[in-house]
Write a structure and sequence with these properties.
mainly beta; 4-stranded antiparallel beta sheet; 17 strands; globular
């Protein structure tokens, strides 16, 4: 068979491969990221043209410790079918499912939407949201891309990426936490540093802060960017989701509520 398959490799303690597996759905299968899940399992995400005719679809698979497929899926209703899609990361859920994040291309409007899909333990899509750029351009070329996902408490997710302006082409780093139903934002944050800023990955810290990495262009020059995000006065961030009332965060009152 000609084409491209997804490939997952496990390295031993000596840094050498001790197990690998190829995952095949169609003629163009690409895995872009791997995220840990409980029980020694892994969530791998990317895109494949093997789920339906037409452009590539977002692809997610849950693998066990032996890299065998527990379930795999694509979202095949809702926003799916608008244009090319891809998943760029996922977080596990307690029920064995996952929330995947990525992007979907809306061919009709020429825009990219940030994409979130919840899957159950059977790999069935049970919730979906597509978000236009917060800088505008839902119908004329703006984009919002989610590039990584971070676990955020009980069965919640924080997505990081970038949003663009449809007219002047500038982009801003973007952090977004959806509500439990994926119907809107529990909170969201635009982080303007330069004119072309992107957050490409993030990790949740033990103290409930979020460390994100990417790049920014202060003064027009591209530079690496490392941000540690926490709640500020007036912003959501306390453990119960209420706004902080302090000028500075403290462990007692205003840990960043991932």
């Amino acid at each position: 068979n000609s084409g491209v398959d997804g490939w997952v490799v496990r390295l031993g303690t000596d840094g050498k491969p001790d197990l690998d597996v190829g995952l095949h759905k169609g003629s163009n299968d690409r895995l872009l990221r791997v995220d840990p899940a409980p029980g020694g399992h892994w969530l791998v995400t990317g895109f494949s043209n093997g789920f339906a005719a037409g452009p590539p679809r977002g692809w997610i698979a849950r693998l066990d410790a032996k890299l065998q497929v527990v379930w795999e899926a694509s979202a095949t209703d809702g926003l799916a079918g608008v244009g090319p899609e891809q998943f760029a990361g996922a977080v596990p859920l307690a029920n064995g499912g996952a929330i995947a994040v990525g992007q979907v291309d809306d061919w009709a409007s020429g825009s990219l939407r940030g994409w979130l899909v919840r899957f159950n333990a059977a790999g069935q899509a049970t919730g979906e949201a597509g978000l236009p750029s917060p800088l505008g351009g839902q119908d004329h070329g703006g984009y919002l891309r989610f590039l990584a996902a971070v676990p955020a408490g009980s069965d919640q997710v924080v997505a990081v990426g970038a949003a663009s302006h449809p007219i002047n082409g500038t982009s801003r780093a973007w952090v977004y936490r959806p509500d439990a139903a994926l119907s809107g934002a529990a909170w969201e944050k635009l982080l303007p540093v330069g004119t072309a800023d992107v957050l490409e990955d993030a990790v949740a810290m033990a103290d409930s802060t979020l460390v994100a990495v990417g790049w920014a262009t202060p003064g027009g020059k591209k530079q690496a960017q490392v941000l540690r995000l926490h709640a500020k006065k007036g912003e959501p961030g306390c453990g119960d989701g209420t706004p902080c009332t302090q000028d500075a965060c403290s462990a007692e009152g205003c840990a960043y509520a991932l």
